[in-house]
């Protein structure tokens, strides 16, 4: 599992950590029931504050992705699927792009430029 954050990115560090977990679950690198690194350990590895990792873990818990167990840390609670609003927005983007003659590579370039 690749834990990476970009300290120069506009995206908040907790969101980047959340994205790492979601990608890990979606790709199968993190299985349901698997324990995540302790917040202090991951914070040190990513050169972020422990509270940054805890904020990401708490939000993932609130989203139903993680569960906390006293003395056992954070574990993957369920498989992650793409959020419905994101899927719907992506489908709308593809539809509009096709209507304007843009193909897959055009869309990918646009997304890379915007992110």
From TrEMBL:
InterPro entries per the UniProt record, alphabetical: HTH_trans_reg/aminotransferase (IPR051446), Tscrpt_reg_HTH_GntR (IPR000524), WH-like_DNA-bd_sf (IPR036388), WH_DNA-bd_sf (IPR036390)
Keyword tags: DNA-binding, Pyridoxal phosphate, Transcription, Transcription regulation
Pfam families linked to this entry: GntR
The UniProt record lists the keyword Endoplasmic reticulum: no
The keyword Isomerase belongs to this UniProt entry's keyword annotation: no
Domain HTH gntR-type: 11-79
Name of protein: GntR family transcriptional regulator
Native organism: Amycolatopsis plumensis
């Amino acid at each position: 599992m690749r834990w990476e954050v970009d300290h120069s990115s506009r995206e908040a560090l907790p969101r980047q950590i959340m994205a790492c977990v979601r990608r890990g679950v979606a790709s199968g690198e993190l299985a349901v029931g698997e324990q995540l690194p302790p917040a202090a350990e991951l914070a040190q590895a990513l050169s972020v504050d422990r509270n940054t990792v805890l904020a990401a873990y708490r939000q993932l818990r609130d989203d139903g992705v993680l569960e906390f167990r006293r003395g056992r840390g954070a574990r993957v609670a369920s498989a992650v699927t793409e959020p419905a609003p994101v899927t719907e927005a992506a489908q709308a983007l593809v539809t509009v792009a096709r209507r304007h003659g843009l193909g897959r590579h055009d869309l990918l370039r646009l997304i890379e430029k915007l992110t």
